Each structure stands twice: as structure tokens, then as C-alpha cells.
Known about the structure:
The structure holds two protein chains of two kinds. Chain A is of the alpha+beta class. Chain A has five helices and five strands. Chain A folds into two domains: about 100 residues; about 60 residues, no CATH class. In chain A, a hairpin with a 2-residue loop joins strand 2 and strand 3. In chain A, helix 1 packs parallel to helix 3. The longest helix of chain A has about 35 residues. The radius of gyration of chain A is 24 Å and the shape is elongated. The termini of chain A are far apart. By secondary structure, chain B is of the alpha+beta class. Among the domains of chain B are: about 40 residues, no CATH class; about 140 residues, Rieske Iron-sulfur Protein. In chain B, about 20% of the residues lie in helices and about 30% in strands. The longest helix of chain B is centred in the last third of the chain and has 14 residues. Chain B is elongated and about 80 Å long. Strand 5 of chain A pairs antiparallel with strand 1 of chain B, so a sheet runs across the interface.
Amino acid sequence: MANRPLTWGIFIASALTAIALFFIPAFIIRPFHHQTPSALALALAIRQRAPWATLAAGLVSLVFALSLWAASTRWRKVAIALVMVLVAFSAVMSRLNYFEWMFHPVPSAQFESASASKLDKSEMILALRFGSDARAYPIREMAYHHIVNDVVGGVPIAVTY
Amino acid sequence: MWTRTVNGKVLHFYLAGINNQNFLMRDKETGTWWQQITGKAISGPMKGAALDLVLSDELTFGEWKSEFSNGEVLAGVPKYIKEYDSNWEPEVAKLKSRDVVVGLQIAGPGRAYPWDALVKQSPVLDRVNGTPLLVAVGPDSKSFRVFVSRIDGKDAEFFLKGEPQAEAPAVAKTDPPAASKDDPPSATKSASSGDVKAKADDAKTGKPVAPSAAPKPWILLDTATASEWNFQGCAISGPSQGKCLDRIPALKDYWFDWRNYHPDTTIYKR
């Protein structure tokens, strides 16, 4: 780093920015932990901007990584490569909704008639009715999927659990 | 349940985060974040907006079917049907994540005791994976201990003595279950002679027990030997005097946390 300290500085700063744009919100909104309102607001604001921000910071770090590459010693090349892998990981993850890896969405809600359902009569369900349209959402299914987008009696609703 | 039309725009929600054990949704149309429990937009372009609540019921399928025989039921997604948990999710529905439980694990799946139930029912007798247990909330209604409810290898039952100074020990020895079951606690007050004798017994054994002047003395009786036991699990008078019950480690925890680390846990209920 003795040579071209400014180039190294910009590379490191842009790479750390790209990495932080994914890891800071991911750390704040990790499950089973308390989130303060301000931390949550920060996490969501970052997450909102992360798709383009990681790309921008990632491109800057890539440009500077390339310009540093040729003159770098072998271990510095390894370090640059590892940092760029993290930058790429951060940019990809900022675009993916990893929460849906844990809680699989319902692609399109399918229904069966009450008489055809094999549910035990003691199973708990969430029920609603619009006009003559009555629907039941078994809690066992909702506890797994958590959200179902549906239209009942012409009214678009979100069933959540 | 919420309507998903906001300012004339129909939104499609997906799960996109978590906030203090309650999930966050995002809508595909605007990318706004919504808190599931409140239906409010907390971040993003529609921040400040709120979803309208839809009247819904939580019913058994049997009840609902009797009312709406022509209704429709959400079918399981074939790919995930096997993962719908049949054992503990319905029980989870009855416990809130921040409810406090006492959790323990002996040779198998864990067991969780809702704290409220323990305070009301203490001492609780239970059997977990073959081991008879005594879960006791102490005289202060805050401390708790879990014991193996066996005396000399034999299963035993315990109950709270109505008032420790209420009966002369001789009476307690002859017929403790009857005294407890038939007499409401308030009806078992008696002469101070028993009080004096109980104190003498305490002094003899040297076990620290609640002094008789304390507002809520706390003594357990066992049905097998009719001995008196203190909150340390040691018999302070009667045939078992000097013996102590084996202890079981237990953890007071939030339900969500206990369940997180003991996903196959069962829940005590009565």
C-alpha cells in the first residue's frame, strides 16, 4: 500500500461500502433479536437503496481493483480477489429476498371445497366471508407460508399469520 | 387479514423481513415495508399508509364447516405439505412468543411450562419421558425449582400445605391428602400450638425454612410418607426428614426462544 495510497484508499472504501450495504441491514433485521425503531429504520432505508448502491460501489471497487491488480504482489492479489468476492456476494444478496428461503411463499393459492377437505374438524382455521364467499385458511398452512394474497368476493385481501 | 388496495392500487405482499419477532411484508408494486401486526407502512414510498383490517375469525374447521358448508378451504402447496408441522404449531398458536415458560429437557424432547399456569397451579406434577416431576413456584411466587418427584425410588405426589402452621404435624401425618382436598385453605387455620411445634422442628433440622412470621409460609406435603418439604426440596419433618429430592435443571425463558432451540418441545397444559 506504500504505492498509490489514494487508489488503495478508494478501492477499500468503495468495497467496504458495497459489503456494508448488505451486511448492516442483514445484521440488524436478523431473526430472534430485538430491533430498535431507529435501527430498523436504518436497516430498511439501506435495504431499499442497496440494489443500485451495491452495484455502484461494486463497480467503483472493480475499476480500482483492476487498476491495482497488475502491480500487486501475489498475496495482495489474493486479498483483492477475496474482497471482490464479498462485494459480488453483497450485490447479489441485496437483490434476493432471503427471507423467502425460510418462509416459502404460496405461488398461487389453490382451494378445495369444505366437503372435500380432509382437515380434521378440530384444526384451527382463519375464516372470513365477503357476501356469499366464505374462505378458510388452515393455521397450520399459514404458520408455514405466513402470507397469502387472495381475492374473496372481488375484494383483494392479504391473509397474514 | 388486510385488504390490499391502498390509494386505489392493488398490492401484492411477500414476506421480506422481521422486526422483533413480527414479520415485515413488502409489496411488489412499490417496495414499501409493512408491519404485519399493525398493517402500517413503516418505510419506503408509501410510509405512513395503513391497510384496512378485514373482519376474520379464528375457528375450528368443524365449526366453520357447519356454518359455511359451501365454503372453500386453502389447499396445501403439495411441495411443502410434509413440512407443515402437525405437532406443535397448533400449540404455538396458543402461546405468544413473549410468554414466559419454564423449559427443561430430560432424555428426549423438551417440555415447556407456561409461567402463568405454573404460578396458578404450583406445585405442578408432571411426567416427562418417564420421569415424574415436581415443578414448584416458591413462596415469593417468583422463584421456581424442578425436582424428580420420587422418594427412595418410589414415585410420590406433592401438594401445597394450606397453611404450614395450620395443622399439628400429627394431624398432617395421619391424613394429609384428606386435609388438603376436603378443606379449603382458609378453613384449616388452627391453634398456635402447631405453629410452635413446627418451629421446633425447623430448629431441630437446621434447615432454613420460611419463618412462621412470614406472610406466606410455604410447605409441601407428600402423599406417600406425609412428610413436610421445603422449597429446597428437603423434608423438614415426618418419616422422610433429612431426605432431599433430586433436582432437574430448568430454564425460565421466552417461549419463542425456548421453542427456537427445542423445536420438538411439548407444552404442559391442564
